[in-house]
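Sample entry (725 residues):
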Amino acid sequence: MKKICLILCALLVVSGASGARRPAAAKLVPVRVACVGNSITYGMLVEDRERNCYPAVLGRMLGAGYDVRNFGHSGATLLNKGHNPYTRTKEYAEAIAFRPDIVVIHLGINDTDPRNWPNFRDEFIPDYAALIESFREANPAAKVYICRMTPIPHRHRRFKAGTRDWHHQIQEAIERVAASQRTGLIDLEPVLKDRPELLPDAVHPNVEGARLLAEEIYRALTGDYGKLRMSPAYTDRMVLQRGVVTRIGGRANAGRLVAVTVADTVRRAKSGRLRFGQIAASDTVTAGADGWWEVRLPLEEPMLSGVLAIATEDTVALYRDVAVGEVWIAAGQSNMSWPVARAAERAEARPTGRIRLFRADPTFADERGRLDSTELARLNRLDYIRNPQGWVSGSDTAAVEEFSAVAWFFGQMLADSLGAGVPVGLIEISLGGAPAEAFVSRRILEDDPALVDMLYDWRNNEMAQDWVRGVIRGNLEGVKNPLQRHFFEPAYLYESRVAPLAAGYDAEGVIWYQGESNAHNAELHERLFPAVVKSFREAFNQNFYGSLMPFYFVQLSSLNRPSWPHFRDSQRRLEERLHGWDDVHMVVSSDLGDSTDVHPRHKKPIGERLALWALHKQSPWYHSPKVKGTLYNGRGTVNVYFDQPLTASDGEALRTFELAGEDGIFYPATAEIDSICRAVRVSSPDVEDPYTIRYGWQPFTRANLCGTGPHKLPVSTFEIPVFRE
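Predicted structure, serialized as tokens:
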């Protein structure tokens, strides 16, 4: 620990530190840089190509000490047996004759052609190694960088006919080449992966895309990643997730030593050094060649207020009034966004500084009319967090009343249960009307044989609900750009909210209230919902065995919409299916619905039911009773068995049970609780030989079966077959 503190202090007193490291350039002879590649390097489709292709932009960025030349050849393949091998072009011969000091190679896109990769894939790695060696022979001192390819979006005509899969395979081969040949590796895929509007023909970047490629290559060559950059979640008053290891990470200039310290206090001495009080955890790490760095600190003990210091030799980021406790992400659509001020239990919200709030709240989130040019530009830049105030204290009554009611009451119960010494951080990234597909990563959508179709013509895609498409059309009315982004677009909220917040930041779990915008197609949602869970877990780097992020979701409530009984049952079956996928659980809300309003006002019970799942290891009664099975007793009666004792929520006779015979026609049934067997006995004079039983099967239901535990949690509505011995 003492050694770490000395390193940190040494970093903090460096003044006048040099800028990002750059390749040494002779005063008289400029550093020769060869940009080798295909039409993307050449600059096809880039307006004013000679000035705006990426090599030209790179040359201006590097400055007079560099001679950057474009040796791109349209249609070129890396494979020597491909349909247009780069090694047979005049650009290749010219690049070798140039004897470059730095070589940047971006090849492979054209190798995804069915004439190439399927036939000659085994020769890709040796051909790439030979290409690299040819440049090293031309100049033994040459520094070679090879690039993971730019993305090929779903709009490519051969995307589902092999290009998607071959692109993945070639990327893996490029990584192997970089490792075996000891070259630099520049990853160009993420530069444009979440910016498909910059690839007009699904292959070639436009002017803006070329500029972004040049910037990334410049950063790789110089190590200049803009000094220290962190997730938007890093602000004063933030909450760090407590744990055996807590992930803290970001980006810094390549090769820089990064020192991270969490302490109770800090002051700056006259010498300029930072003096810490009691240090809770500290570590150092060196930023990688790509600028990314990460430490994992042991922060098991909660902290009500302290300081987080992140320092390199040229930058100090100091975050004050930082807490260590429980961090939860609140996501979904309008029922999650519904504010405390409009909840039935508004008076029961108790502002407290032990809860900290972070709210992604774009100024135009609720607009349903035409968006103006400023808003459209923000959407294309993925500028959709819009939180200039950062974290705020839950003691701020105005902030509490604007915050998600479900999330606030979840956090309030969590704080009460965890004790006065454990702060709770709540991050709200919900958006009214948002469909589930907007929270799924593009890669997961693209790789799924069914979900990939949601990306095609998403403005008019019948896989999206009618009213969602209507909002999109209203917002984008008159917009001529066919690739204009939108907050309901598949993958958009993942790319603009989930991924940026999760970069180098830990959270305990996710609470999710969504489905209203997908209730028209339960079957599609059954594929979408696991993709949502997987996307969140991958973003927060908690998608491996032993570290699966808890994900708790709300079943849709009661409302007079005909599809909702089927959708609620689909959600129930989803929970059963995902039960083995560690910590994915559902809370029931059908007892708190409103027959005419999609936004039931009773939010506190929903938030508390979610909190019970977060605390479920403390009690066996912290979840709704679940059906364990059914059994036909041969006398016209069906026994439905549960995992908990049962009662009626209002003390009256059980309601809304129905039975159907083999003909599939349902009739009302009477039901009685068998307390000894934890079962409900169901029978109907109209069904002598029951095959199916259902409960609460109305869009707006008066179902009243619940558990006997202290919270009397309701049983989910269901339709299940009758087991017959």
